[in-house]
Design brief:
- The protein is α+β, with helices and mostly antiparallel strands.
- The chain has two helices and six strands.
- The longest helix has 9 residues.
- The N and C termini lie close together (5 Å).
């Protein structure tokens, strides 16, 4: 198990658990980061702080501090 922020470009991963705080957790759930969701890592920003993911067909960019609490396989 690892954090979503540790995934590499091209990885297809499955979300195991969302350990974010209340407001951030609700936002991530609304974006589709729910338990069992499949996520593809598409690309990373120039400083590796911003990463673009494909989540349930949508491309979503998230910062590492937003996704450090997402556990995936």
């Amino acid at each position: 198990m690892r954090n979503l922020s540790e995934a590499n470009i091209g990885d297809n991963i499955t979300i195991i658990k969302n350990n974010a705080n209340n407001s951030l957790k609700e936002r991530l759930l609304a974006l589709g980061l729910t338990t069992g969701a499949n996520v593809e890592v598409l690309r990373k920003g120039p400083k590796n702080n911003l990463t673009v993911y494909r989540i349930r067909g949508a491309m979503i960019a998230l910062r590492n501090e937003e996704i450090n609490n997402i556990i995936c396989s």
